[in-house]
Amino acid sequence: MSKFNFEKYRRGIITVEIQTMTPEKFINLLWKSDVSLGNVKRKNITTMCFNTNLKYYDKISDIAKRTDTKIKIVSRRGLSFFIIKNRKRKTLLGGMIIFGLIIYYLSTFIWNINIITENNVTPYEIRSQLKALGIGPGISKSKIDVYDLEEKVIKNNSDIMWVRARIEGAKLNISIAERQEPPGFIIDNSPCNVVAKKDGEIIRLYSAAGTAIVKGGDVVKKGDVLVKGEQGKEGGTYQVHAEAEVIARTFYEEKIQVPIRYVSRERTGKKDENLYVEILGKKLYLKKAKNNFKVYDKMFIDRSFIKKETYFEVEEKLKKRDKKEVEEKNANELFSNIIVKLDKSVKIIDKIVDSTQKDDKFEIRVVLVVEENIAETQLIQPSTDENIEKSKM
After folding, report:
1. CATH number at residue 122
2. In a domain, 1, yes or no
3. Is residue 141 domain-resident?
4. DSSP per residue over 231-271, as a string?
5. 93 assigned to some structural domain
6. What's the confidence (pLDDT) of residue 173?
7. Source organism's superkingdom (predicted)?
8. Is the domain of 310 the same as that of 271?
9. Which residue range(s) make up the domain with 278?
10. Secondary structure percentages of the chain, helix, strand, coil, to 5
11. Residue pLDDT, tens place only, 208-255
């Protein structure tokens, strides 16, 4: 009987390989001895392997001696083997425990404050106010009430409308939205015409002031006068501030050229990683990556006190794009690019998609036919005679 007490290690799993002339008989003897087995497989006539708990090793060894069976531990896994391997390394285990406690203790503090502002309020101002409140790198997380902090920052700054403060890992992230002044209204009654701000075909016209000089069906160009800034009968006209809404059919066009061949980046499944903690701006590596990959993708994870950088090996291949897929994907993108530029009042009438192949590229073209108001005001410049009369006066 071995002097080693396997009964203490109940969570260790071993894979045992046996060689005997009657492997079935050996398995039956194990079951009669209340030895739990799993994943029993036959390799050949005399060889079988199975998984069992480490605590049954003594029984298996005794039965093997009585039946003249050769046994071999093929693999082992579980926390028990880590304990067995390091049971005499008390200093190492003690150091790991102390290191873990130090890491846990340091993770209860804030080591970095990230402030995001907009236009008028600077991060320096907020950082100074936080310092006055006793908040800075090295402060314990338990001393920070983020909701109370948000109220104090808003109270101390009249230009701030909204504050969001959150603790994420060893960081304090503060986002700030500033108040926006409403635009002022300016009333302008100076004489002006209504002109076309772009080319189009007139569909309908609604005039509130001035004299319309175009009608439905007319084609106009950018800068053409649509409503003249004058009213009254012939011989008794006077200038006014023309106002009108002129709905016309216009066109918006976007196009793009996409190379037919492209380099595809595919991950091979191989990876390497760095594990480290960052204390006062310095990195303390727990695991250092060799990173022998020629081409790779890098991913950075900062969700806790322990940070991770993972390198994924990438293989580059030259591939050819499918024309239909290119047309569908880029047509939708071009359509979205046009839509972003349009006003909410614009009505889309038709969408035209055209794709052609030129040399080693696909050219995708999207045209939107829309109805929109093309009216804009243009001040009426005084005539030369009026300027001369004003100068004489």
Report:
1. 3.10.20.310
2. no
3. yes
4. ESSTTS-EE-B-EEEEEEEEEEEEEEEEESEEEEEEEEEEE
5. no
6. 92
7. Bacteria
8. yes
9. 261-320
10. 25, 45, 30
11. 888 888 888 889 899 888 888 888 877 777 888 888 888 889 988 888
Alpha-carbon span 308 to 102, nearest angstrom: 19
What tokens appear for 41 in the block? 């497989």
CA-CA distance, 353 to 337, in Å (whole number)? 14
Closest-CA residue to 199 (of 252, 137, 138, 122): 252
**What is the pLDDT at residue 388?**
44
In this prediction, residue 9 carries a pLDDT of: 53
Co-location of 118 and 63 in the same domain: no
Amino acid sitting at position 149: L
Mean pLDDT of 151-155: 88
pLDDT in tens, 85-119: 666 667 777 888 899 899 888 888 999 999 988 88
**Considering all CA atoms of the chain, what is the largest pairwise distance in Å, rounded to the nearest integer?**
133
pLDDT for the residue 88: 63
Element (H, E) at 356: strand 347-358
Please calculate the CA angle 207-211-212 and round it to the nearest 5 degrees: 65
For 53-92, the pLDDT digits (tens) are: 887 888 888 888 888 889 888 887 766 666 666 666 677 7
Same domain, 147 and 210: no
* One domain for residues 305 and 344: no
Q: Give the number of other Cβ atoms within 10 Å of residue 134's Cβ.
A: 9
Residue 389 lies in a domain: no
For the record, the structure tokens of 250 come out as 């216009």
